[in-house]
Amino acid sequence: MSGPAKIETDLSRRSFLLGGLGGDQVVHASENCLAFQGIACRSCEDSCSVRAIRFRPKLGGPEHPAIDAEICTACGECVSICPVNALTVVARKTDA
Fold this sequence. Notes:
By secondary structure, the chain is α+β, with helices and mostly antiparallel strands. The protein has helices at 13-18, 43-47, 77-81; strands at 25-29, 53-58, 61-67, 87-91. The strands form two sheets. A two-stranded antiparallel ribbon has the order 1-4. It has a two-stranded antiparallel sheet with strand order 2-3. It is globular.
């Protein structure tokens, strides 16, 4: 007789406690983001365990954060690490 099957997840303790399972929420970067001001900072990218935040090269300018809404779990790890509070968890846009 074997015990119950263990379910594997990539959910952090913080996201579990805050209920960050994605669904109807996603992270948004405001214009306060240091990257938009030409300052190199990738704290959010480094903190995202599911790799939903990537910095895409921009012709003639600094790289800006791009958040993949399909991957983002809205766990809040990037929000808490941002040095200028430029990230927030917002309602996911619907195509209605």
